[in-house]
Amino acid sequence: MNKVLVTGVSGFVGSNLSTYFNTQENKIVPLHLRKGVKENSLDDIYMIIHLAGKAHDLKKTSNPEEYYQVNFELTKKLYNAFLTSKAKKFIFVSSVKAAADMAVQVLTEDVVPNPKTDYGKSKLMAEQYIQNQPLPEGKSYYILRPCMIHGPGNKGNLNLLYQVVKKGIPYPLAGFQNKRSFLSVENLCFIIKELISRDDIESGIYQVADDEALSTNKVVSILAASLNRKPHLWNIPTNLIAFFAKIGDVLHLPLTTERLGKLTESYIVSNTKIKAAIQKELPLTAKEGLQKTAASFSKV
User: Which residues form the NAD-dependent epimerase/dehydratase domain (predicted)?
Assistant: First the structure.
């Protein structure tokens, strides 16, 4: 049985990963990174999965320096420990935001990274540090850039949208034809399992997403179907919505042009490289993943 050291094991992805590996030939060993890495603590570790990090603060109340201390400095310390240890593999769960805050076209690993936020910049710094260190023979690293992850225990925007649908509140932005990539946490765990169990996958950066990008209208429809309801989609003219958003800028209302942009932008992420590497289909389609997540919301 392989011992797999995991940081951030109590978080959303970490808790799902622990549950997933209960049925696999791997033993999860948690590490609280802020306590440091003790000498010889990695001697019997086969692989390190680094999930811990400071998440993107959409309310913009965080101290920018915290991103660099947590996402870069702690990653640097852990990776340095890996390089001198007996561990064979290192997975760093980064973010697509390390590449681009907005994806005008389909985002691939070939894009020149240009993050604008401290969150994205700190993740990119950690990625570049890992890439720039000489890699000892017999060791591998994998930098995963997931898009929006969802699944049991998720408390993000998808849960908020589910609550809106559950209350029967119409979705007023149906006139915007945006598409976004999502990632079922089960698909992420499957990919991590492949990286653990195989030795034929090259080190490097891999984007992780479900196969199909979905419009927000489609997501609302899937969530409504999980509640046995018809979706309430209001196709209000987009120019009228934009007008009210400008008023929101002046009067400091909940709907502003910035928030409208985030709600209606397209962000499509290609998973072609990781699928070519593992040569397998993902367990869940985008629709199936959202259905499972919606089912988990109904149990809360």
Answer: 4-208
